[in-house]
Design a protein that fits this description.
alpha/beta; D-Maltodextrin-Binding Protein, domain 2; 10 strands; about 40% helix; about 250 residues; elongated; 11 helices
């Protein structure tokens, strides 16, 4: 009888919800971490966050990585995952927007640059390299390449490009002085005291930088959809705005 009562008590005890696993673009490290903290402060288990280039995350999802939410830094990789039937389409939404900037080391003598068609980026580089995300897969790199093509300077700059595995790796190259200039998101530049923005790319030079979010079809956490809705809420978007994102 005592064992039966114990079993009934265990069954009646609420089981803590499993925290959602979120695969998110590398540029979201600080902001999404702050959002996860705010969610936990409301009494929820803190989400488990995993950051990498959106291209790498999409490949992990395709390979069956256990996760609940995907936040991509572009529509292309979300489209790729959706085309394979790996997200719940009704949960897909545009979460954030960003801007593309040219950065230099904070300790360098680099001056502000007017970014316009034909601007002399190759000359500014001298014998140095241009740090970017890998230009055929990493969203920050594909946006950057598109901008340089639109501005008519890609052929002169392409041989100088160092393609990094994600935007934060490109940022680190400039922070360490291994590249005199880099192309990253405005929010990445804000996250580092070791770089400064020397120019902002015109919005017309590339497609809009959009961060879509969606629930993965394999999601098992009951907290995943509520957390997604929180990120899209005014309270969630206010957090992202603090870190320089455009959130409407």
């Amino acid at each position: 009888m005592r064992i039966l009562l114990l079993l009934l008590a265990l069954l009646a005890t609420p089981v803590a919800a499993a925290p959602p696993v979120v695969l998110a673009a590398a540029s979201l490290q600080e902001s999404l971490g702050a959002a996860a903290d705010a969610w936990a402060a409301r009494g929820h288990p803190r989400p488990i966050l995993s950051f990498a280039a959106s291209s790498a995350l999409a490949r992990q999802i395709e390979a069956g990585a256990p996760a609940d939410l995907f936040v991509s830094a572009d529509e292309v990789w979300m489209d790729a995952v959706q085309a394979k039937g790996l997200i719940l389409p009704a949960t897909r939404a545009r979460l954030l927007a960003n801007r593309l900037v040219l950065i230099a080391s904070a300790s360098s003598a680099a001056r502000p640059v007017a970014i316009r068609p034909g601007f002399p980026l190759a000359r500014l580089l001298g014998n140095g390299r241009l740090a970017m995300g890998e230009t055929h897969s990493v969203p920050a790199g594909t946006y950057g390449r598109a901008a340089l093509v639109r501005l008519g300077i890609w052929p002169a700059v392409a041989p100088r490009v160092v393609g990094a595995e994600n935007v934060r790796a490109a940022l680190a190259l400039v922070e360490r002085g291994e590249a005199p200039y880099g192309i990253v998101y405005a929010t990445d530049a804000l996250a580092s005291r070791r770089v400064r923005v020397v120019g902002t790319f015109p919005a017309s030079s590339h497609v809009p930088i959009v961060y879509p979010i969606a629930l993965l079809r394999t999601s098992v956490s009951a907290d995943a959809e509520p957390f997604r809705r929180f990120l899209l809420s005014p309270a969630g978007k206010a957090i992202f705005r603090r870190f320089g994102f455009v959130a409407r």
